[in-house]
Amino acid sequence: MRGRDRAYGALLGLAVGDALGMPTQYLPRETIAARYGVLDGFRPAPDDNVISRGQPAARVTDDTDQAVILGRLLIDGRGRVDQVRFARELRDWHKRMVGAGSADLLGPSTLRALDQLDRGVPPEESGRWGDTNGAAMRIAPAGIAFSVRPLDELVSRVAQAGRVTHNTGIAIAGAAAVAAAVSAGIDGADLSGALDIAVRAAEIGGRLGHYVAGADVASRIAWARGLVAGRDPGEALDLIYRLVGAGVATQEAVPAALAICSLFPGDPFAVTRYAASLGGDCDTIAAIAGAVSGAVYGAGRFPATIVEQLTAANPDLHLSDLADRLLGLRGGTDARPDPGGTPPEPGLG
């Protein structure tokens, strides 16, 4: 079934992009270019990468781990994420990573939200300032579980899924764009169609949650796509790195990832290779780009050797089974979506 191949492709693409970007994350673009050129496969983390050093080739990071956590919670909640349990599982994951000596831990928005919860702030408010890319990096399972039509319902479900840590218009817009593109791909949309739907979802998502100051995600996705249209991939990546940005801000990472998707129609592995070679937060950018392109083109477009290496390095992921279970929710969730998410505070737009 094409839908099953695309659902698995979304999770596989996420994990492949994440693992490709593991050794290069937070390195400058110039360092990556001199050391690797464009990555052609999995590499172990170098000793000078203070975040991932010591990790073997093909090992995934927080992007994949947290997406799997979210996916399992969606299944257990039949489409609705238990926010208290989500926070607890993220905290437990963080503790396990610290215990294992990893420096690749929870991001700033999630850590801030968990601290707020510890102080007695309710889950509806703990994500009040969460505007970084954590919600977008782990949202692909929602794109598998929920149909893209009606779009406002999908966006509402996305807002609910990440509310405890990322309850801002910027974060919801970025996560909605990714989930909508994934969902559209599973429904059979071509790449251009999926990216168009991503922009519309970001427009809707930007009106939900709390206001924080920042550039409009939908506008930046459209601009980034136009910026790289017709350009050589190397030139395009330089422009993305210098102008769009490769940081943890949602309004950088999501437009960067979707712009890279547009460079390699039909080749999701090339999308992940180039995204992981970008620099900055390139494991997350490659994970997002891999999820979208994997949903559009399917798991079968990834080289068999890459899939084998990823599976061998991460034997507990079981992404195909997770994709099947998420796909089983599609069109059959009992959970009712939120009626529009959290409105902005009066006077803040």
UniProtKB/TrEMBL annotation:
Cofactor note: Binds 2 magnesium ions per subunit.
Family recorded in the similarity comment: Belongs to the ADP-ribosylglycohydrolase family.
Protein name: ADP-ribosylglycohydrolase
Region described as Disordered: spans on this chain: 330-349
UniProt keywords, alphabetically: Hydrolase, Magnesium, Metal-binding
InterPro entries assigned to the protein according to its UniProt record, in alphabetical order: ADP-ribosylglycohydrolase, Ribosyl_crysJ1, Ribosyl_crysJ1_sf
Flavoprotein recorded as keyword: no
Keyword Metal-binding listed: yes
Source taxonomy: Bacteria, Bacillati, Actinomycetota, Actinomycetes, Micromonosporales
Gene Ontology molecular function terms on file: hydrolase activity; metal ion binding
One Pfam family hit: ADP_ribosyl_GH
Residues given in the record as Mg(2+) binding sites: 61-63, 281, 283-284
Cofactor(s) needed by this chain: Mg(2+)
Residue spans of biased composition, Pro residues class: 340-349
